[in-house]
Amino acid sequence: MRAVVYQGPFSVAVEEVPDPEIKHPNDVIVKITSSCICGSDLHMYEGRTAAEPGIVFGHENMGVIEDVGSAVKTLSVGDRVVMPFNVGCGFCKNCQRGFTGFCLTVNPGFAGGAYGYVAMGPWVGGQAEYIQVPYADFNCLPLPSGDAFEWDFSLLADIFPTGYHGAELADVSPGESVAVWGAGPVGLMATYSCIIRGAAEVYTIDHVQERLDMAGDIGGIPINFDVGDPVEQIRDMRGGDGVDKTIDAVGYQAAAQGSSAAGGEQTEIPNVVLNQMIDLINPTGIMGIPGLYVPSDPGGVDEGAKRGSLAINFGKLFEKGLKLGTGQCNVKQYNAYLRDLIISGKATPSFVVSHEVPLDDAVDAYHKFDQRIDGYTKVILKP
Fold first, then answer.
1. What is the pLDDT of residues 156-186, one digit of tens each?
2. Per-residue DSSP letters for 153-190?
3. Are residues 291 and 317 in the same domain?
4. What is the DSSP string of 190-252?
5. Is the per-residue pLDDT at 375 higher than 90?
6. Conformational region of residue 133, where left means phi above 0, alpha means psi within -120 to 50, and beta covers everything else
7. Statement to judge: residues 20 and 140 lie in one domain
8. Measured at the alpha carbon of residue 262, what is the angle toward residues 303 and 202, in degrees to the nearest 5?
């Protein structure tokens, strides 16, 4: 089959790779209909991880079941499904408690597994024609048949639940004020999720104008940090007050004011968002941090950043009595509920999709998405 294969920093190729097979009676094979390029893929694409050439990318996958193992009980050939980017077993201690992003079975020696991602287990990615799904009864979310809501449903694999996870980590409640750092796909989904949850004001901070415009279109209040310190901008707008909750949808590749937005070119300050969150939030507030931080970053700006050690204003955090929640999203906690919001017409996350391109155009799509060219916000690959 054809698949997107990592070659090295800033290089991918569409190559022929072995077709997936049923390896366990609880596996299914899914024929991919949509697979998204994620901002997390760019960490590998830019050489900011320990990824080795040969990885098949793709952890945001949906499609139609082509083959089923003999032990599969709830799924059939022809079923339309979307898979969480987390690979979970469903029976370990963490999965039983709903923490499917930290499964203890699927990636021995590490809590958590995912398709097509470095250090996240042996699971081949789905930016391809087909994918093997293990523990399929647990990992496949059934969808209505046909092709309705294709873009919306594809976002259930990661960014819609992850954005919602940011709002959940911050315990965003009706009537509250929230500041979201980042207007990339996850940041826009976090903004959208806060609005769905009834927040009164949601400030969205970025410096890519197309993304800020999108945040404004869905009811967010765009803040361009190239114009000035976002903490000061928001306090000025609020008569000196801070906000109730904050969400970091940026992570360790946070850009400095005035730097390039293009991947590999921007000047980074990996702790800037965390410290701005601590500065802006009101006492007793809650910080949600779904943005990615890693214990090893070969491209880190200093020795501390290279080992994931960042200086934050912990004294101020303590003085304010703040709480914080971190970690990758446990997609299964949210995806069925978010699916039903889509079906009911109460959520349309596909507003974030900017481009749908053939799988064979993945090389160009990765370059443009990484460089923020032509308004590339969210890209869906079609085999």
1. 999 999 999 999 999 999 999 999 999 999 9
2. HHGGGTHHHHHHHHHHHTT--TT-EEEEE--SHHHHHH
3. yes
4. HHHHHHHTT-SEEEEEES-HHHHHHHHHTT-EEEETTTS-HHHHHHHHTTT--EEEEEE-S-T
5. no
6. beta
7. yes
8. 90
Please state whether the predicted TM-score (pTM) of the whole model is above 0.85: yes
pLDDT, mean of residues 102-131: 97
Angle ∠(81,83,87) on CA atoms, nearest 5: 145
Q: Which two tokens stand for residue 231?
A: 């903490």
* Residue keyed to tokens 């079609």: 382
Token pair listed for 149: 């809501």
Per cent of the chain over pLDDT 70 is: 100
Look at 87 and 305; give whichever has higher pLDDT.
87
Q: Please name the amino acid found at residue 336.
A: A
Q: Count of CB atoms within 10 A of residue 316's CB?
A: 13
- pLDDT (tens digit per residue) in 346-369: 999 999 999 999 999 999 999 999
Say how far apart CA 56 and CA 325 lie, in whole Å: 31
Number of domains in the chain: 2
Task: Indicate the helix (H) or strand (E) that contains 4.
Answer: strand 2-8
CB atoms within 10 A of CB 231: 21
**C-beta atoms surrounding 77 within 10 Å:** 12
Q: Which two tokens stand for residue 221?
A: 């209040």
The pLDDT score that the predictor gives to residue 289 is 98
DSSP secondary structure letter of residue 351: G
CATH number at residue 192: 3.40.50.720
374 pLDDT above the threshold of 80: no
Say if residues 296 and 252 touch (Cβ distance below 8 Å): no
Residues in the chain: 383
Report the chain's mean pLDDT, rounded to a whole number.
96
Question: Which CATH number does the domain housing residue 344 bear?
Answer: 3.90.180.10
Dist CA 330 CA 126 (whole Å): 19
